[in-house]
């Protein structure tokens, strides 16, 4: 017993474990389920006894096959063909079907001890059979193709359609339906309108199942529907049967059948042969001769062939006898003489009558009935208007018309542009000083019953205030080739209307009274100048505070008027949220009053310029802009990429990766937010020079979105000197300078000076090209030290702000100071975030002073106290991860001398 346990233990250490596996097989195929065990030949000097091995295969709790003690037990449909004594216990499933799917477990034992237990999953994988049974479609008619996939398992399958190798319908998955045999069938549909080009195209149906694709290519059979003409053969009397015939043209294919219907009831096919009362038969056969065959003439014959008859029966005749042609009758001499005398008599009588009535008839023919000039009911600026004149008479085909604006003749200008405007098309305002005119004459039209004719002359134009205000149209009617004017018509003066363009209600705080909100609405581009504003608040009228509509505003250069109306309301009413304020604008050009309304306080946002960092090789591009001073807090930010060289492009690409931090409330009813865009630079973004990125901000207070542009540039770090250059004058003014070479884009410099604390300084920057071809940026800052704030001259500003003393710096004889030529750069490099409001005031004052001394250098007065003076410059550049600082500290010797 001890030896037996030892043998079993050794076998367990030598058995090769097999992981569970999944076997897929097609229908009716043989599948082998693996079960392999590695057995030693000898153990402890003794050979392993194969008769003690046993194997058992089970599925769904029932035994399938087993071997043990030299006894085999195998169900039908299974086989153990492996070499059991070499460790191959694989089971073969014969004729795999859906009912044989499942998990099969293999248990191998030795001497009643389990050595190995494994399982294998058997599943059926049946590929579909693809077919397109119906390939006939109708030309230019909605048609549907069906692609059948039958006998597949498991579901689903996907269908896609191709035309000449290109996908015309993407893949779509279909579960299908289960058939009685347990497999599945599905149908994929393609709906399209066949064209003539599809006749020679190759269509394909691709069916994908479990990663395998099956393609079926085929050509369409396109049916061309015929054009049908229905006619009847002429008959001599109504007692003769009426024969109908139907002509079919341009159809395909050749096979076609025709059926006849009367009152939607199908008529029976007439029998080819009818039976007579005596038992014989009768029939009528038709043959149509073409015009060419009819012209040949000659003898035609109808031959009847019957079984057993050697000489067929028939009848022949000449075409001239069957269908005689029309023969022109020949008159005798006496008949010709009678016709001649009658003709002469008729001519003489006609001439006599014509001679007596000519003068009277001529007067009637030349008489014309001309209507007045008909004006349109409304003339709107920019929309076509038409004036017409109706002319009635017997000779209107010889009449011509000429149109005048006041006394100036009008010529047709509708064909002077690139394309001719159609009568019914939309007419745009013409930039020509003469305006747009189109002349048209319609007729002559025949009047019913009177024998007279009617001619309509029309003039289509685009009203313009500068041309047509207080003007009249004139129409002169005359006969062609004659200088005499028959009739002249003058229109009445007409009014030109232009509907006002009404803005949204703008809500702003009142500086004098912060508890009151002013609401303003503006109407522009209207004519005439009479306009009315009516304010309402929850159904009650509000009195406008300021309104230019009550008086007549002066017109602009184009003759249009503008006006605005303002109303004030306590801010507490708007903060309730439910208060509704609206204004209605009334004008004669409006069919209905224009209405604008608001439900709360609105403040327009301010958007800063886009600041960028990164975009070097391997770095991420980060862009950002500040959005401030807006209300309500809801806004939308979109980042767009412009194509190369285009400022405004209708096909802008929306960029992903944008984020909005905020909005954050900074004051009551005031919010701010920060919009950022972070994305990795691509090759496309590194190379272009003309393209760029746009930050578009949309807010309910904006009629149009606000946009800020950022352009692609190559980022190169500038060369920075190790220290600041210093030059002192005899007057105690120090000139500090820093020279940067190269770099792209331009760097920003910020100077500051002081003792323990630093205050921002005003500097100037000049830019030029150096000897080595690189750009050089020189920043210069001048300052004067002061130990006390009480001894400042009147022109000195507080807290280190700049003064301008041109004589102290620009004097060529000043000791230790060179003349500095100041060039305005246009870019403010002194925006200091901690003192934004004070700095802006300094900039405004420096601009005012700069007008009087354009070449002066800014002199900054610095209060350093008893400590040593420090001057620092901060250099910020997109290629630098952190700002770079250069600092100059006053030596102790100079400090002691100054004291």
Question: Secondary structure elements and their pairing?
Answer:
Layout: H1 2-14, E1 21-25, E2 31-33, E3 42-43, E4 46-47, E5 53-59, E6 62-68, E7 71-74, E8 78-79, E9 91-93, E10 102-110, E11 113-124, E12 129-131, E13 136-138, E14 143-152, E15 157-163, E16 166-174, E17 177-178, E18 184-192, E19 202-209, E20 212-219, E21 221-223, E22 227-232, E23 244-249, E24 261-262, E25 265-266, E26 274-275, E27 281-282, H2 291-296, E28 299-304, E29 313-318, H3 319-322, H4 333-366, E30 368-370, E31 385-393, E32 399-405, E33 408-409, E34 437-446, E35 453-461, H5 465-468, E36 473-479, E37 485-490, E38 501-502, E39 506-509, E40 516-526, E41 532-537, E42 540-542, E43 546-547, E44 561-570, H6 571-575, E45 581-586, E46 594-598, E47 606-607, E48 611-614, E49 620-630, E50 635-642, E51 653-654, E52 658-667, E53 670-680, H7 683-686, E54 692-699, E55 706-711, E56 725-728, E57 733-741, E58 748-754, E59 758-760, E60 764-769, E61 775-786, E62 802-804, H8 806-810, H9 836-852, E63 858-863, E64 870-876, E65 884-889, H10 892-898
Parallel strand pairs: 1-11, 13-21, 61-63
Antiparallel strand pairs: 2-9, 3-4, 5-6, 5-10, 6-7, 8-9, 10-11, 12-14, 14-18, 15-16, 15-19, 17-18, 19-20, 22-23, 24-25, 26-27, 28-29, 30-31, 31-35, 32-33, 32-36, 34-35, 36-37, 38-40, 39-40, 40-44, 41-42, 41-45, 43-44, 45-46, 47-49, 48-49, 49-53, 50-51, 50-54, 52-53, 54-55, 56-57, 57-61, 58-59, ...
